[in-house]
């Protein structure tokens, strides 16, 4: 059974190699090869899953040691894999949702002449992400981590002929690099402190606690904060969130893949996997919860103001990942819920993105929701699947988002004290805003008047609308139509997941029991009863929906975005994140380098040049003594001899 | 006679020699002044030998004479070739060894 673990990674990796090296002769079948290998990986995953289910709850960790990677005295890095309940969950999510997205892309990318390469990159993405979650030590995890960064770069910039896409890819790569720096520093501190970075000895198991708790709290806090920095980069958390919105420049299936199955979940995985370290560093945990709470509000506010359907969903992802990070920062009372929300989010966010892609597919790649409206008649399947995803994400009772989000809010309150009230309050407020912006997306896209019909009357120069003008067919009226079945089938499957996953996981605490041997679990003692939290969650959800309905359902949506309040305008610019980065980092960096160059020119060069000049001047003067006259040399000899004699006499006298 | 007087004479001769080396330009005269200084040294060595009743000084004086003879051979050869090349025996004319 253990041998299947390597095959899990090998299948998509083989796909990537074949598709990227195969050349044009594979153009006709390339997309099916990619989809087949991704599904094969899912089949391996499912086989392993049922194998694990058949074992004892404490005996569900499989390890596979392939070979020694860097065998150096005192530094052992192995190519070794670990499959336990946590990585199993991720494997099923990655390969399952990933395969559906592959299938969807077959239809979505049908007219793209570089479709084979696209599938090669998708397979590479899956392979890197699988390596990340299956690695048995932090160094191998880092390889997968970088692989994910590379694949995301290639995919976000897939339409590299668009300068905006090329820039977005670069931005994602650079921002991620800051986070990668954090991970590498964390690994270095781990190695110098513990002498190892393998999961087994470091994090320990239930019977044998790892060495992670032995270090001083300061060291563990440093490791925790560096791991958090890494997680912020990959999971788009404040302050490294700026790449996520721009990453929408990639093809829509890529957005679905990044937001649901891979990439942004890596940060949550890292924190939950390193739980043993965070549990011993409460300060780092507190920072994690703060980052999560800030991000969940930040993303939600940004999501409210965007008119671009994909960017609104991107804000929503940021916010939902914020929930997961918040839960992961709560310690054993939250780890399981973070992963549970991650899985349910994987279903409904993938469904929402694929739905958005389907809408764009039928609307000539238009992304501005102000030019949608009334689409439910034309794309019934998209409408229903998107609608189910919508109900799931706002936490409609009974659907998957309701169960997982409710648990996180409850756990946030259970942290206790003032912190608990603040975090819980933020999470509740986030739930209200989530309901608001998702209802807004829903109403603007599928309900209301058909604003795409009279596009000519809309003023062409709209300052606040995202630049969609370069798309072809700007003046042709779109003919909305349902997408082909290769696109609708994945959406239907994901909609099933969005509806039933939460109940499946929550009833009888199945999911928590499944993860407990790895992440541990404690029941939090919430100051509010579970019923009170649930009812207030539902209440704020209803309020959010109602406000959105009043604003966007009962009144016609203006085709040109109104100027809006100060907050709206700031949120349209992603709450000034790029302006902040520009002023603080870009300008600051420029000033820093300029002053360093100045110091280099004046001080460093000054010392070097000054020394050289003074030695040169001095020797110029000394040179004059050498005038070629033998008699003057004789004088100096006599003078020297006289001095010697005088000195000798003086010394003798003393 | 008091041997210290020989030392006074040696000092006088050395001073004359040194002065001559420093102020005269004619290479032959400079050369003679060097010989004068060497002989002043010899004189003082012999005087010290007599004063201390020790023969070491006289032996060193012989060495000095041998070295001086060799030096004269080399030095005169240099002066002759210098004179042949520049038709002058002035030491200041041979001042090319400078920057």
From TrEMBL, chain B:
The keyword Magnesium does not apply. GO terms for biological process: ATP synthesis coupled electron transport. It catalyses: a quinone + NADH + 5 H(+)(in) = a quinol + NAD(+) + 4 H(+)(out). It is an enzyme of class 7 (translocase). GO terms for molecular function: NADH dehydrogenase (quinone) (non-electrogenic) activity; quinone binding. GO terms for cellular component: NADH dehydrogenase complex; plasma membrane. It is a multi-pass membrane protein. It is found in: Cell membrane; Membrane. Its EC number is 7.1.1.-. Keywords: Cell membrane, Membrane, NAD, Oxidoreductase, Quinone, Translocase, Transmembrane, Transmembrane helix, Transport. The chain crosses the membrane at residues 6-23, 28-48, 60-83. NDH-1 is composed of 14 different subunits. Subunits NuoA, H, J, K, L, M, N constitute the membrane sector of the complex. Belongs to the complex I subunit 4L family. NDH-1 shuttles electrons from NADH, via FMN and iron-sulfur (Fe-S) centers, to quinones in the respiratory chain. The immediate electron acceptor for the enzyme in this species is believed to be a menaquinone. Couples the redox reaction to proton translocation (for every two electrons transferred, four hydrogen ions are translocated across the cytoplasmic membrane), and thus conserves the redox energy in a proton gradient. This is NADH-quinone oxidoreductase subunit K. It comes from Streptomyces antibioticus. The gene is nuoK.
């Amino acid at each position: 059974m253990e041998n299947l673990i390597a095959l899990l990674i090998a299948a998509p990796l083989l796909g990537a190699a074949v598709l990227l090296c195969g050349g044009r002769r594979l153009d006709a079948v390339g997309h099916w090869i990619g989809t087949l290998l991704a599904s094969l990986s899912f089949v391996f995953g499912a086989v392993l899953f049922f194998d694990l289910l058949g074992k004892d709850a404490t005996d569900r960790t499989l390890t596979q040691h392939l070979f020694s990677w860097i065998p150096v005295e005192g530094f052992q890095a192995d190519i070794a894999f670990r499959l336990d309940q946590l990585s199993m969950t991720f494997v099923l999510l990655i390969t399952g949702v990933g395969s559906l997205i592959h299938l969807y892309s077959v239809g979505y990318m049908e007219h793209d002449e570089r479709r084979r390469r696209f599938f090669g990159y998708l397979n590479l993405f899956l392979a890197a992400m699988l390596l990340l979650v299956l690695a048995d030590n932090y160094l191998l995890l880092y390889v997968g981590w970088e692989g994910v960064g590379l694949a995301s770069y290639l995919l976000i910039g897939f339409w590299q002929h668009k300068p905006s896409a090329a820039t977005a890819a670069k931005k994602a790569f650079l921002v991620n690099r800051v986070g990668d720096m954090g991970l590498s520093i964390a690994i270095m501190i781990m190695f110098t402190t513990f002498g190892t970075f393998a999961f087994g000895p470091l994090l320990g198991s239930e019977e044998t606690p790892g060495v992670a708790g032995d270090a001083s709290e300061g060291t563990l806090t440093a490791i925790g904060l560096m791991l958090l920095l890494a997680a912020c980069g990959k999971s788009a958390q404040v302050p490294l969130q700026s790449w996520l919105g721009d990453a929408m420049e990639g093809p829509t299936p890529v957005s679905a893949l990044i937001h649901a199955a891979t990439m942004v979940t890596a940060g949550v995985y890292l924190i939950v996997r390193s739980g043993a370290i965070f549990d011993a560093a409460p300060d780092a945990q507190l920072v994690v919860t703060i980052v999560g709470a800030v991000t969940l509000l930040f993303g939600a506010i940004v999501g409210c103001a965007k008119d671009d359907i994909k960017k609104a969903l991107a804000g929503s992802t940021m916010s939902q990942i914020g929930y997961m990070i918040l839960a992961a920062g709560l310690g054993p009372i939250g780890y399981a819920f973070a992963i549970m929300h991650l899985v349910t989010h994987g279903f409904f966010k993938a469904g929402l993105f694929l739905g958005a892609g389907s809408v764009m597919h039928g609307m000539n790649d238009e992304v501005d929701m102000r030019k949608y409206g009334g689409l439910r008649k034309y794309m019934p399947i998209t409408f229903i699947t998107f609608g189910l995803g919508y109900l799931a994400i706002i936490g409609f009772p009974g659907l998957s988002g309701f169960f997982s989000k409710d648990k996180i809010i409850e756990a946030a309150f259970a942290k206790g004290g003032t912190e608990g009230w603040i975090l819980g309050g933020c999470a509740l407020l986030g739930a209200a805003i989530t309901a608001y912006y998702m209802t807004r997306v829903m109403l603007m896209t599928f309900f209301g008047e058909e604003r795409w019909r009279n596009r000519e009357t809309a003023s062409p120069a709209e300052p606040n609308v995202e630049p969609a003008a370069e798309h072809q067919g700007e003046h042709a009226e779109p003919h909305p139509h349902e997408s082909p079945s290769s696109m609708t089938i994945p959406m239907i499957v994901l909609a099933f997941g969005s509806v039933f996953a939460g109940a499946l996981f929550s009833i009888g605490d199945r999911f928590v029991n499944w993860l407990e041997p790895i992440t541990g679990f404690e029941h939090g003692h919430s100051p509010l009863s579970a019923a009170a939290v649930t009812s207030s969650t539902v209440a704020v959800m209803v309020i959010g929906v109602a406000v959105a309905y009043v604003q966007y359902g009962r009144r016609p949506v203006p085709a040109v975005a109104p100027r809006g309040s100060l907050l709206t305008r700031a949120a349209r610019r992603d709450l000034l994140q790029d302006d902040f980065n520009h002023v603080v980092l870009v300008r600051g960096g420029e000033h820093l380098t300029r002053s360093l160059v100045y110091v280099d020119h004046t001080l460093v060069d000054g010392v070097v040049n000054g020394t050289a000049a003074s030695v040169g001047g001095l020797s110029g003067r000394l040179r004059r003594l050498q005038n070629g006259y033998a008699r003057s040399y004789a004088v100096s000899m006599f003078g020297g001899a006289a001095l010697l004699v005088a000195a000798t006499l003086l010394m003798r006298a003393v | 006679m008091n041997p210290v007087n020989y030392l006074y004479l040696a000092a006088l001769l050395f001073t004359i020699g040194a002065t001559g080396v420093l102020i005269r330009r004619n290479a032959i005269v400079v050369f003679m002044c060097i010989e004068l200084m060497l002989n002043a040294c010899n004189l003082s060595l012999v005087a010290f030998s007599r004063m201390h009743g020790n023969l070491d000084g006289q032996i060193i004086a012989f060495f000095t004479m041998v070295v001086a003879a060799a030096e004269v051979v080399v030095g005169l050869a240099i002066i002759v070739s210098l004179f042949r090349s520049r038709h002058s025996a002035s030491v200041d004319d041979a001042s090319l060894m400078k920057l």
